[in-house]
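Recall that a protein's primary structure is simply its ordered list of amino acids. Everything else, from secondary elements to tertiary packing, is in principle encoded there. The following example makes that idea concrete.
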Amino acid sequence: MSNTVEIHVPDIGDFNDVPVIEIPVAAGDRVSEDDTLIVLESDKATLDVPSPQSGTITELKVAEGDRVSKGSLVLLMELAAHPDAAAPVAETPRAAPDAETVEQARPAPASRPEADRPEPAAGTPGKPSHASPSVRKLARTLGVAIDEIQGTGRKNRITREDVEAYVKRRLTAPPPTAPQGTALLDLPDWPKPDFAAFGPTEREPLSRIARISGPSLTRNAILIPHVCNFDKADVSDLEDFRKRLNKEAGPDDARITMLAFAVKAAVSALKAHPRFNASLDGDEIVLKHYWNIGVAADTPEGLVVPVIKEADRKGLREIAAEMASLANSARQGKLKRDAMQGATFTISSLGGVGGTGFTPIINAPEVAILGMTRAETQPVWDGSAFQPRLIQPLSLSWDHRVVDGVAAARFLRHVSEVMSDFRRLSV
């Protein structure tokens, strides 16, 4: 009897023809349950496929760049000996596993008709969740809060199958129903001219990020009543301070950018004007008492928005280091899903490119987004003469259903005043 089994891509949702971007293991490696076998590109993030059991890899069946789907054969594994139970054995190649057979290492409970098995439902946030360390690790890998899952195991224990079923439902769930009056936008058909009739053309496919983010951007632009305010900040003194901090920094310290100051200024403004740190939920406004700042990052595949969690509790250098690390992961295509979740407010900076202003699209369910372009030296009248000052353009797109123009002007002025005199944060 052979002790070699096939490991397949599990059923965790709408994974069809996604690329393998990393294989951290090789033939001959010993792996433990939940060790990462391959890394896939999913949506704007990466997704680790963990090992469902312990053993030794005997043969890889995929290579970097291959495209896989649910049930694709990943590798062959020689199972590790288990002192307490007979190890599962695949004597002959099997078909792609369904969601109920992904984990072969765990002994099956007393059987009951599949139709009677309860569908894992959403749990109660804040309620203690019973799950093994391996199941908790799987939930973290997939970017799922364990307390959101209702267990179907003994005494409501959360199993691996519960996690996989929950993620599958989340990924395959239909989008929320559009508000009344927006289901049908009586628009003319999109024009389809013969471009080649006017000159040479070529075609290239949209990146995966562009294909996925496009519908969300369209939804946000159409359904959110955007208004944009503009202001500017005199950051001459702040720039001198920034340069001085970087000059004093050690070789291992992160270099502080103007964007790090903007994150702290935004947090200060959000605390002073809490409606900008909110979301609209039907007839209610959800005011959030945490401050997570999304920072848009440009990558070869398109724009992604990693999140600085608990930005109010972090210093400038810590924020700068985290932004650099997240941006590097994004450019390498290794940004994890949970690194892009939970933002309460977003900053989009074009400072490294240029421009004098723009109107960024709000990232729903947030209610505002701050835009920054390149700071430029301009002549400013000081009462007796023109002085060269470094001026930072600022723009704020906001949701008119939640805030109004006066509140937006005050919010943006708050950001401007903090960036013009950073000592205000100590008041």
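Residues 9 and 71 are 5 Å apart (CA to CA). The chain has a mean pLDDT of 83.
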